[in-house]
Amino acid sequence: MPRKRHSAEQIVAKLRQIDVLVAQGRTIAQACKEAEISEQSFYRWRNEYGGLEMEQAKRFKELERERSAQAVGRRSVPGEADPEGCR
Predict the structure, then answer these.
(1) Helix or strand or coil: residue 66?
(2) Cβ(31)–Cβ(45) under 8 Å?
(3) Per-residue pLDDT of the chain (87 residues; tens, 9 = 90+)
(4) Is 7 helix (H, G, I), strand (E, B) or coil?
(5) Rounded to an integer, what distance in angstroms lies between the CA atom of residue 27 and that of residue 29?
(6) Distances in Å between the alpha carbon of 10 and those of 5, 54, 69, 72?
(7) pLDDT value at position 85?
(8) In terms of Cα–Cα distance, which of 24, 1, 13 is closest to 58?
(9) Which phi and psi (to 5°) does residue 19 adopt?
(10) Secondary structure of 24-51 in the HEC alphabet?
(11) Distance CA 32, CA 42 (A)
């Protein structure tokens, strides 16, 4: 089965869906199966997005993208002088 990437909004929606199913008496395994995700993904997402609302999850992802873009910009290119002037 090909890998599927979920957006932050989709992840929060699936976490809510699983919460509802568990409240109705299903087990985590059954709820994950109905939501079409693995239990491992559920627990990883719950740790990362657990108490976030949709808008907070969007902002969280935006901040992660900005941070990774800044990190890429800070990497020195081989052959260029070091930003501090040291080698």
Answers:
(1) helix
(2) no
(3) 577 888 888 888 899 999 999 999 999 999 999 999 999 999 999 988 877 676 777 777 788 888 888 877 766 555 555 555 554
(4) coil
(5) 5
(6) 9, 9, 23, 27
(7) 54
(8) 13
(9) -60, -40
(10) CCCCHHHHHHHHCCCHHHHHHHHHHHCC
(11) 7
Report how far apart, in Å, the C-alpha atoms of 52 and of each of 3, 12, 26, 59 are.
24, 7, 23, 10
Quick one: DSSP state of residue 9?
H
Amino acid at 2: P
**Which pLDDT belongs to residue 15?**
92
Three-point CA angle 74, 80, 85, nearest 5°: 80
Nearest Cα neighbor of 7 from 43, 47, 75, 60 is 60
pTM higher than the cut 0.70: no
Going by C-beta distance under 8 Å and a sequence separation of 6 or more, which residues neighbour residue 28?
Answer: 18, 22, 39, 42
Count of other CB atoms within 10 angstroms of residue 71: 9
